TrEMBL record:
This is YpoC-like domain-containing protein. It comes from Lysinibacillus xylanilyticus. Residues 9-100 form the YpoC-like domain.
Amino acid sequence: MNVEAIEKEKIDAWFAEWAELEGQIHAAHDARNGEAKGLMEKAILLFERLVQDAGDEVLPINGIERLTFIKAKPGQYACYRQLDELFKETKKRAARLRLQAAKK
């Protein structure tokens, strides 16, 4: 695990980028304008870079299987919801790992 990569400021930067993309993806699904897939592909890359930078320890339970599901059909609303949950759970895991590292 990369302790520096899970510092609050660094994690917050990843999630600020996700929040911006998430709003765009949500709007694209509401508008049904076909833009959601491209935005989701950007968001998937963002998530993969986050995990690569911070370490596999931040990956939630069944994270790889869930990411595979998302990548199979990134334009689907269900995949968007699943990616949103992955981001939320990853943020919680990073916070927990940060606390554990601080206790050592």
